[in-house]
Every structure is written in C-alpha cells, then in structure tokens.
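Retro notes (design track)

What went well: tokenization of the new backbones is finally stable.
What didn't: we kept losing track of which sequence belonged to which structure.
Fix going forward: every design gets posted as structure first, then sequence, in one message. First example under the new rule, 111 residues:
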C-alpha cells in the first residue's frame, strides 16, 4: 500500500479509496501496520477499511524484542557503536521517545 493512499484515506479523500482498490487489484504488497509516534492522526475507524493498524513505536519495538531479542540487542549495540556511544548512553537518548522499550531493555540486559 502506498503511503499517499493511507494518508488521503485518513483525511477522508475519496480519490484514495479508488487508489486503494487499484492497488489491491494489482496484487501489490501492502502494509498491515503503520508505526508512528502520533496515533491520534491515524484513527482506527479510518484505517479499518484498509485492514491497517496504527501502532506506537514503543509498543512495536517491544514486540520486536519479544520476537527476536538477540537481533534487537545486536542492533542496539551496533547502532551505539556507529554513533560512538555506549548502549547505556543510547538508551538514555531513546528513553524520551520509547520509555517502555528502554525500561524493558534495561531490565533484560542489566544496563
């Protein structure tokens, strides 16, 4: 699904429904989840016809960790190294945006 299709649908654009129908007929891959920090801009009733769910970044990252903790942990260390910080420093920065995810990582990794 193209982002413009969802954006227009959330705004109530009739043209977006036509684009969505064309997209489905063409067999294109489509997203099932929109990951965002701003859930209020993606009301459930606007997304429901497209079978798309909006999910907060914090929840999404926790779900990723639950599914693949080693991959998430490796990615955290790799990102910290890439920006010249320790994992603890990176978590401190992330805490403002994804506090529950950071709390989970700290408890699991003893950081």
């Amino acid at each position: 699904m193209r982002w413009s299709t969802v954006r227009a649908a959330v705004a109530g654009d009739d043209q977006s429904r036509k684009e969505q129908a064309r997209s489905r007929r063409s067999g294109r891959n489509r997203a099932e989840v929109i990951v965002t920090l701003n859930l209020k801009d993606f009301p459930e009733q606007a997304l429901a016809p497209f079978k798309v769910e909006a999910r907060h970044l914090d929840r999404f990252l926790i779900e990723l960790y639950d599914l693949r903790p080693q991959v998430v942990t490796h990615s955290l260390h790799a990102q910290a190294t890439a920006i010249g910080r320790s994992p603890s420093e990176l978590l401190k920065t992330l805490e403002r945006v994804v506090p529950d995810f950071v709390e989970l990582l700290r408890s699991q990794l003893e950081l």
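Added context from the reviewer: The chain has two domains: 3-56, 68-109.
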